[in-house]
Structures are given as C-alpha cells and as structure tokens.
Amino acid sequence: MIDTTAHPAAGRVGERVAAGDWDALAAELDEHGHALTGRLLTPEACRDIAALYDDTDRFRSTIDMARYRFGSGQYRYFTHDLPDVVRELREAFYPRLLPIARDWAARLGKPAPWPDRLGEWVEMCHAAGQAKSAQILLRYGPGDWNALHRDVFGEMLFPLQVVVGLDAPGADFTGGEFIMTEQRPRAQSRGSSTTLPQGHGLVFTTRDRPVASKRGWSTGPMRHGVSTVRSGRRHALGLVFHDAA
Predict the structure, then answer these.
(1) Inter-residue contact 240 to 158 (CB < 8 Å)
(2) What number is the average pLDDT over the span 46-52?
(3) How far apart are CA 24 and CA 37, in angstroms?
(4) Residue 10's pLDDT band (boundaries 50, 70, 90)?
(5) What is the pTM of this model?
(6) pLDDT at 214 over 90
(7) Counting beta carbons within 10 angstroms of the beta carbon of residue 41, is it exposed (0 to 12), middle (13 to 18) or buried (19 or more)?
(8) CA dist 115 to 27, 94, 209, Å?
(9) β-strands 229-232, 74-78: how paired?
(10) HSE-CB for 113 with a 13 A CA cutoff
C-alpha cells in the first residue's frame, strides 16, 4: 500500500481548491445548499485514500450504520494524525468556506464565532469539549445506504462541509447518489440527488442555510444521505470543520 501520509498529491490539492470558481460555488450554495467542485484528486490518489480503510490503526473508531439504524454500511473516523492529503484538503477549504459561513450567519442574525485560522477554531472546539476527530472515510457495498442526517456533534458547529468521491460511478459502483432534502418554510420539502465524480468534491450544508422570504431571511433546515448502492463498492472522504464530542 502506498503511504498517503506523504503522498505526492498532498502538495497540489491546496492549489486545486484555490483554483475553483468560488464566486460560482458560493452562488450555487446560496441557491441549492450544495455545489460540486472541480477535480481535487487524481484517480491514483483516490485509490490510495480508499485503501487506507483497511489500515485500522489510522482510525479512532468504526461505525456500523445498521447497528445504530443510520442505514447500512460502515464508516471510520480518522485519528487526529491525518494523512497529509486529507489534512491539506481540510486546511485549503476552510478559508474559502469561511466568508460564505460568515455571510450566512449575518443574513440569519446569528453569531459567527469562526476565526481566520482553522487551527484556532479547532482549539475552540476542544476547549468546549469537542476534542475528537470528525474526519471520516466511508465504505458502502451492494445494498448499503446512508439515512438522512446532519453531522452535528455539539454546540461548536461549522455550517459547511465537504465530501470527496473516491470511486468512479458507473465503473466501480452503481447507485449511491448523494441526496439532500430541504425543509422549505411553509412548503413541502424538496429533495435533490448528485452523482459524485471520482476525485471531485461536493460542498454542502451541515445543518441549515439562509432562504429568502417575504420577511427577509429565514432558516432552511437541510439533511443529507446516500441512496442505495446497487452494485460494486463506493468509498468517500468526509471533511468536517468542527470536531466531535
């Protein structure tokens, strides 16, 4: 197995994140609550990260989704000793997402406690009792799925997160679309599905987002999950910008 702690991709993912059309991504997040990035990782880097799933020493815990009625399949939480490529992705996304997070908080009249540096924000999470790594590697097989949910682990919350597809849809697996539902004010809930290309990211709402209304801005609660995998195996990397209790 290639050790992705020092993977050559780790030096370039930050540049790929920075090269995204962030004005367009912000507009799409405003409109839909989720937005695809361009390619962040090569197929080789994706395969190497997916292969880490069997290296249990890299993870602090394993969650069997069926046991907790979260769906079917497994995911594992990394320890704080993240592979370089995972750490750099997280550090590269945070300053790009931060202006969006602050803008959303301003529209909703909510506090925006997030400092300029990710490390300082993580220290604040730890001081508040959320000291466990929340970065996850997910594995789904045929028949597996992920129930609609929110990744909220306490009072310390960052309103956006990222999932990166590690396998090629249609080749490595079928089904397994990323799904989101939005509870709209005084209206029926609305759902959407996204096929996540290998190596691409999807930025999406952690809990809720601002929605324009006649009275100004209101809160639009959102949940996310994964539809049933019909064949093959699907891996994904989840980047969360707050730690867990």
Answers:
(1) yes
(2) 98
(3) 10
(4) low
(5) 0.93
(6) no
(7) buried
(8) 23, 10, 20
(9) unpaired
(10) 14
